[in-house]
Design brief:
Length: about 280
């Protein structure tokens, strides 16, 4: 039995290692081509390793940052991601606390509505969303976070509800006996206990908002505001042609920040998902 388990573990490790290499291969190709000259990419082949004659160094990265308005788009993406994630974490954690602690038809109905929102395809609402965003003036980077709150609330509330159910009610009752009102109880007692779920939800939502292309394209004015994914899609070099080297460098610069955030908080994702799904 022990030998079978060991053999099965070895096979599983090998299969997962192969799958990991398959997933990492596109990133390696982007990194490799971001260090090659334009001619090497278009003529000698994108699948060859850079040689001395085809190595461009950091020239493509400098070109991507300087000539394409990368820093401006980076600022928009950072602001949208940070504001949206912060709004989702605060509002959805408070909503989940209310749904979990206040028993009734209203809270139960709200919970099922949030769960239902996770299975509704975005394509069903994107045209009406665009019109509504224009009507309510939510079509700028400064307030698009309200739209992201609506679309990100389903998963966030679901995970928060699962974790809040595991928090002893006696802790909150003790704080109220000590003189805390509901707002103080939530922010001083409940919110610090939600740290694993806060981090996991924050990372998952940040990855979604940072990489999202469709929603900003529908809502924002592309002439005035371009996030990083929009910039990559409309990447143009001299004479209006697509320069593959700087575009690959731009993609790498986009990938690096969110990969770092994920690696720093990956241990919390497992804890948060387990607490939000299993205990709920």
């Amino acid at each position: 039995m022990a030998k079978r388990r060991k053999a099965g573990s070895v096979i599983l490790t090998a299969v997962l290692s192969i799958l990991s290499l398959v997933w990492l291969y596109p990133i390696f190709m982007i990194l490799m081509n971001s260090l090659k000259t334009e001619r090497a990419i278009t003529t000698s082949g994108a699948f060859r390793l850079p040689a001395a004659a085809t190595f461009a160094g950091l020239e493509n990265y400098v070109s991507a940052i300087v000539s394409q308005g990368f820093l401006k788009s980076l600022g928009y993406s950072l602001f949208i991601t940070i504001s949206s994630v912060a709004l989702i974490l605060v509002c959805c954690s408070m909503c989940a606390w209310y749904i979990t602690r206040v028993k009734g038809r209203l809270s139960r109905g709200l919970y099922f509505l949030f769960v239902l929102s996770m299975v509704v395809p975005f394509q069903m609402v994107m045209f009406t969303l665009s019109q509504t965003a224009d009507l309510l003036k939510l079509n700028t980077p400064w307030n698009i976070c309200v739209i992201y709150l609506g679309f990100g609330a389903g998963l966030a509330v679901f995970m928060f509800c699962g974790f809040v159910r595991s928090v002893p009610v006696e802790v909150e009752e003790a704080s109220m006996i000590d003189g805390c009102n509901p707002i103080q109880t939530f922010f001083l007692i409940v919110l610090p206990m939600l740290k694993p779920t806060l981090v996991s939800v924050g990372i998952l939502e940040a990855m979604w908002v940072w990489n999202d292309y469709l929603l900003p394209t529908l809502v924002l004015d592309i002439k005035n505001y371009m996030t990083i994914p929009m910039l990559i899609q409309h990447f143009r070099g001299s004479f209006g042609r697509v320069e593959m080297g700087p575009m690959m460098a731009c993609i790498m610069l986009t990938i690096i920040p969110i990969v770092i955030v994920y690696l720093l908080g990956q241990k919390y994702i497992i804890k948060g998902v387990a607490a939000g799904a299993v205990k709920g």
